[in-house]
Write a structure and sequence with these properties.
12 helices; binds adenosine-5'-triphosphate; single chain; ATP-binding cassette domain-containing protein; ATP hydrolysis activity; Rossmann fold; 15 strands; membrane; elongated; 5-stranded antiparallel beta sheet; Alpha-Beta Plaits; alpha/beta
């Protein structure tokens, strides 16, 4: 089997002429986490629905664990685990009963299913809460149970649709560790959809950036960031400056390129960010548009997204999904 997941040229239109997928292609190998990264509405959930046989594409092909999703959906369903955005657990039942019921749905018998439930409760740190109703669980515990439910029947391929949305930092970190173990120790192929750039950066061996229904960039997080030459320089104003003098000032500076002005914030790239900051600030001062602060950062996935999608991730997402930038050198803040 070449790949655990192989999708090529997927297209999908919804009523109202919404083109959710526009020729999307991805592959995921065994033991690999592919991060499908994109803002709200990019087409991530539609991709997962097609690969998990919930909906059919208008065109394109897809196979999961070697089974064609259109011709053998029954086989696909037996080898996949799906953890969707909305919890599938019964809040009125205990964690253990939820796991046992799920196992029975997959045809697992008495002792076997109880053993598997106990194993998963231990693995996900839910032993003490095993007999409690799920509605009394914290958000992090519920999410861990959701992942355990997706694993009861020992799938080969796991789909995790935004697994950490709404979790606090501690619960996110423990979920990340568990997901990494699933790909590492258990050699599961994992398709992880997320709109958190830092999550993709941290977890995924490869990232596919999806914008408007297609993959616009693909590679390892470090590889994608490494393709962006030089440093990212971010400039901040108290109030949005007029665009023309800002652009004219920066156009004249050698080594400064790819200027994107977005309200009070400007992003640009420079071969040597630390050296460029004083020149950038001086040029803006001279042009009558003095900035409040400037910082230098190593390129982030947000910068990668900006390069390929032509807009900032958070701007497309309508939320601060990018997380804080990681400053490598503090520039001339003032
Ligand atoms: N059943 C549907 N009917 C009509 N339009 C739909 C339907 N489902 C999704 N869409 C639209 O298709 C596009 C892609 O949606 P999709 O849910 O795949 O995006 P997403 O990347 O998963 O976003 P999110 O992060 O919000 O889940 C969006 O414009 C969405 O509004």
């Amino acid at each position: 089997m070449a790949h655990a997941i192989e999708a090529a040229g997927l297209t999908k239109k919804y009523p109202g002429d919404v083109r959710a997928l526009d020729g999307l292609s991805i592959t995921v190998g065994q033991g690999e986490i592919l991060g499908l990264l994109g803002p709200n509405g990019a087409g991530k959930s539609t991709t997962v629905k097609i690969l998990t046989t919930l909906i059919r594409p208008d065109a394109g092909t897809a196979a999961v664990a070697g089974h064609d999703v259109l011709r053998r959906p029954d086989r696909v369903r037996r080898v996949i685990g799906v953890v969707s955005q909305k919890s599938g657990a019964d809040p009125e039942a205990s964690g253990r009963d939820n796991l046992v019921l799920q196992g029975r749905l997959y045809g697992m018998g008495g002792a076997q299913v109880r053993r598997r439930a106990a194993e998963l409760l231990a693995r996900f740190g839910l032993e003490d809460a095993a007999a409690r109703k799920v509605k009394t669980y914290s958000g992090g515990m519920q999410r861990r149970l959701d992942v355990a439910l997706g694993l009861v029947h020992r799938p080969e391929v796991l789909f995790l649709d935004e697994p950490t949305t709404g979790l606090d930092p501690e619960a996110r970190a423990s979920m990340w560790a568990e997901i990494a173990r699933l790909a590492g120790d258990d050699a599961l192929a994992i398709l992880l959809t997320t709109h958190y750039l830092d999550e993709a950066d941290r977890l995924a061996r490869r990232v596919a950036i999806v914008d408007r229904g297609r993959v616009v960039a693909e590679g390892t997080p470090d590889g994608l960031k490494g393709e962006l030459r030089g440093d990212a320089v971010h400039v901040q104003w108290q109030e949005a400056p007029p665009e023309a003098p800002v652009r004219e000032a920066l156009d004249r500076l050698p080594g400064v390129r790819e200027v994107v002005l977005d309200g009070t914030r400007l992003s640009t790239r420079a071969d040597d960010g630390a050296a460029a900051v004083p020149a950038v600030l001086a040029a803006l001062d001279q042009a009558g548009v003095p900035a409040a602060a400037a910082t230098v950062a190593r390129p982030s996935l947000d910068d990668v997204y900006l390069r390929y999608a032509g807009r900032r991730f958070a701007q497309a997402d309508g939320a601060d999904a990018a997380g804080p930038a990681e400053p490598a050198t503090a520039g001339g803040a003032r």
